[in-house]
Amino acid sequence: MDSQDFREFGKAMVDYIADYLDTIRERNVIPSVEPGYLQELLPKEAPAQGENWKDVLLDVERAIMPGVTHWHSPYFNAYYPTANSYPGIVGEMLSAGIGCIGFSWMSSPACTELEVIMMNWLGKLIDLPEVFLNCSDGPGGGVIQGSASEATLVGLLSAKEKIVKDLRKSNPDLTEADIKGKLVAYTSDQANSSVEKAGLLASVPMIHLPTDNCILRGETLREAIRRDREAGLIPCYVVATLGTTGTCAFDNLEELGLVCNEENLWLHVDAAYAGSAFVCPEYRHLMKGIELCDSFNFNPHKWMLVNFDCSPMWVKNSQYLVEAFNVDRIYLKHQHEGHAPDYRHWQIPLGRRFRSLKLWFVLRIYGIEGIQKHIRTQIDLAKHFEQLVCSDRRFEVATSSMGLVCFRLKGEDNLTQILLDKITANKKVYIIPCHYQGKLVLRFVICARTTTVDDVNTSWSEIVFQANEIIPRSQIIVEAEKSKLDTLGIATSRDPSNILMEKSK
Amino acid sequence: MDSQDFREFGKAMVDYIADYLDTIRERNVIPSVEPGYLQELLPKEAPAQGENWKDVLLDVERAIMPGVTHWHSPYFNAYYPTANSYPGIVGEMLSAGIGCIGFSWMSSPACTELEVIMMNWLGKLIDLPEVFLNCSDGPGGGVIQGSASEATLVGLLSAKEKIVKDLRKSNPDLTEADIKGKLVAYTSDQANSSVEKAGLLASVPMIHLPTDNCILRGETLREAIRRDREAGLIPCYVVATLGTTGTCAFDNLEELGLVCNEENLWLHVDAAYAGSAFVCPEYRHLMKGIELCDSFNFNPHKWMLVNFDCSPMWVKNSQYLVEAFNVDRIYLKHQHEGHAPDYRHWQIPLGRRFRSLKLWFVLRIYGIEGIQKHIRTQIDLAKHFEQLVCSDRRFEVATSSMGLVCFRLKGEDNLTQILLDKITANKKVYIIPCHYQGKLVLRFVICARTTTVDDVNTSWSEIVFQANEIIPRSQIIVEAEKSKLDTLGIATSRDPSNILMEKSK
């Protein structure tokens, strides 16, 4: 394929993507395929001769799209958002076009330097203390990781090396194996599965501490540390969550920070989803205590319009990362070492894409105000959804926070489970469950960048439509009215449908 | 930015990328910037209001390009290639446009299914034994990792969990810490730095075994295992390299495989660069013994035209990965579990991009024959370079393999070092050094997809031009001629320039 073909193919793909996103509401958000569907549509081997790009593009629509879960449909209200924006997509294109590998400054200076500057822009945008920024005088700095999972693991591995060094300095007789075999880390019972996975991968037990209304408190941590130290263990790392996966709860960072500082534990903050809200000053009280943390991570690739993957992580002292990860070779050395971060020492893989380009495109083309507007709009839409839920007496809101509303049908869990199953089977709206205070709840998240009030109303209509098949609205209203009239001592003998008609006036 | 703006911006970017790659030879491959250059060109904070995309695109050329090391210039002959092709770029665009996250089958069925099928296509293309393929009856299968670093680490972490389980089954009194504190892993002294880093991250000492002409042999491994078992250690993992970073040497897989199978060690194969050559049957003898390995990894994002990142890894038994990595939650469960791989259990992060799209595009648009042609052309170009080196008596070829030629100026290392410094300072050709048999050599790699014989000649001219400033060609010729004439017993008194002119006829 020569560059002329690319100009045609690339432009056809730009139109295909624009058409796809323009008309995404017309597709069911959940695909109607069974496992193995694609094997029936594609050959078992690669073709011997090259094919025309037009045939490949036709097959995207024929074979791929029927099996896509449409994360950017406004009716995708599951998990948390994954970001997608036009500037983000074009930034990704340029990154692929330049195709450099930024493992050292020398391997492509612009790749390292733009990342350094973007981490400063972004850190200032969410009002991170200066100590975390590359532009501060100290050893702090920011780097783009691929995911929150990696950031959590990088923090843990750094904390692990740090405590081994600290302890062997004061107790030279201790072996590395002695120490590593006794390390423990903590997080809350609400933390994302990736936190537990980090513990598994690093061979450090990750203890899930109980929460107070989904919030991890300082005293709980302090007590756990005391108990484990008494048992001869060595606490080394805490992961606090700002915006938990289940219910978007915020751990009490200030309390946890004070305990970690007193006890010399590394405090990592996972703000994967909710961190983007800190671009708005009115939400920054939720990160109070941030100055007490050792590392902080959030995902602009979730809620801040930058296409996956872009997971910035800031640390107070990057030297701990470099000490844990540095394994240099002659072929990686260059004359400018020390003048700019060699980011390969800040992460797990050696190779790295030019990911800061898409962040730069998004920050410039939206501007700070555009990004703030996006966050505020999405939170307003969630509030609108919450009002819709509250307006229907069959439902109750369990909890809500940011762009997430957790709700359920009143009564036993099985009603809510049946509702979820019916919604999922109909494929028009995608929501997923979680547990809150011992009860099954449904998580409704504003995800797509393009979501409007009408879209939220449409999602809600589908939920109501399915609920009507389980608990007819009339029944609820009759019961409620009957109860009210009973209370007033008035006999109830009217036809329920009359009451329903009166209510709907 | 609305979709109409995106159509304009996206198409302008397609043209920008095509123009960039069409005219890449006009730029110096090494940029002329000093650390910190970009801080002078960009503001210190993100803009308050959004900017026009046209201004951003202008700034790409003004601020970014002067700091880019041009990995796709034919005069980039450093490291190993990172792939870039037009189908790969367009595949990356579509991946960004769809923007789904494929952590489970349900989260986007097409994402998992296309990856399963592509891993079969690719496995067949390089003639991997069927036991490694998803389409086999057994527990084997392939997955796309982000990098060889990750694949090596995933293999090590799986091997670590496996040996702990194996040993605790036979010795229930052993604690996990007892075992983990004694684990050791092996690789050769030629292995990539990422292998050592995997050991560091997994807290398993990675022992570098000596090589025989850069090749790790079975007896060396057997002896190391014997020695370490005697010392009370527990050997668990071996990383063999097919195509080492320094000189593209191939470990003796068959010998290593037999030892690992006898001794119950996990054998992982890192064929990051050279694995792509196995699409050509004439190079498959270099992977003899592959059936004895537990996991195999190579990077189509290096030499097989698929843009970074795309690092397929196949394992004989995926259950070991799932057991090491599975930490499930209610929000990740779905009704189709077990019918298709949930790839989140096969990798470090939870999130994953739709990376198989670009692989599919490349395999279809090039076809098997197109990919074979690419590999063979690049190897032929390396042979052409080798002939050029051999034609100049000041130089010697130390070793060559695949698309790599290691060469040097005859004599002391400092001559070669000066040559390298001069070439790098002139920024027209990018090569890097390594050590081979105790001597400094320069690695010349055919990297860019578009490299022609003329390009290789141009790179060579630059090398000769710089060499002429160190050792004038005339001097060498005079000395050589003198030595020849001396041998023949003929007095030498002619003007050196005459000899030079005769030679150049």
Automatic annotation (TrEMBL), chains A, B:
* GO MF terms held by the record: aromatic-L-amino-acid decarboxylase activity; pyridoxal phosphate binding
**Can you supply a Gene Ontology BP term from the record?**
catecholamine metabolic process
Keywords from the named record:
Lyase, Pyridoxal phosphate
Q: Which residues carry this modification: N6-(pyridoxal phosphate)lysine?
A: K302
Cofactor(s) the record lists: pyridoxal 5'-phosphate
A GO CC term attached to the entry: cytoplasm
* Keyword Membrane tagged: no
Question: Pfam family example for this protein?
Answer: Pyridoxal_deC
Q: Which domain of life is it from?
A: Eukaryota
On whether Lyase is a keyword of this UniProt record, the answer is yes
The protein's matches in Gene3D superfamilies, at most eight in alphabetical order, are given as: Aspartate Aminotransferase, domain 1 (3.90.1150.10), dopa decarboxylase, N-terminal domain (1.20.1340.10), Type I PLP-dependent aspartate aminotransferase-like (Major domain) (3.40.640.10)
Which family is this sequence assigned to? Answer: Belongs to the group II decarboxylase family.
Give the matching PANTHER family. Answer: 3,4-DIHYDROXYPHENYLACETALDEHYDE SYNTHASE, GROUP II PYRIDOXAL-5-PHOSPHATE DECARBOXYLASE
Specify the protein name.
Dopa decarboxylase
